[in-house]
Amino acid sequence: MDKTIITVESSINASLTKVWDCWTNPEHIKGWTFASDDWHSPIATNDLQTGGKFLTRMEAKDGSFGFDFEGIYTLVEPMKKIEYVLADEREVKIEFIEEGETVKVIERFNPENENPIELQQGGWQAILNNFKKYAESK
């Protein structure tokens, strides 16, 4: 089993309350969970509790491709930490760290085996950058 962990992070210029709400509220999730403007997320459900399930549908706006991003929460510490296992059994850990007027969001995850590490890191970082833009505009 590959023990590589990919890390992406961003500092969000918003309150912890706002960052948490934008990250966990399904109506907000639909506004940022895609890497580029030619994609969107028409569906998001989120049962934010240990053992709860989540699903976000990510699709190209032209309908050419789409997939479900889904998993089960293994740990939820409100305003601090979220951990989950994806449908393909990869683990993801997310931390929310208040730093003065900003919140640092750090995501760590196991890579999948189909795409190069750099591509996966770039894709997740692009989504996190989109989250930053979204949360700071709310």
Automatic annotation (TrEMBL):
Domain Activator of Hsp90 ATPase homologue 1/2-like C-terminal: 13-136
Matches recorded under SUPFAM superfamilies: Bet v1-like (SSF55961)
The organism's place on the tree of life at top rank: Bacteria
Gene3D superfamilies per UniProt: 3.30.530.20
Listed InterPro entries: ASHA1/2-like_C, START-like_dom_sf
Similarity comment text for this entry: Belongs to the AHA1 family.
Protein name (Swiss-Prot/TrEMBL): Uncharacterized protein YndB with AHSA1/START domain
Organism expressing this protein natively: Arcicella aurantiaca
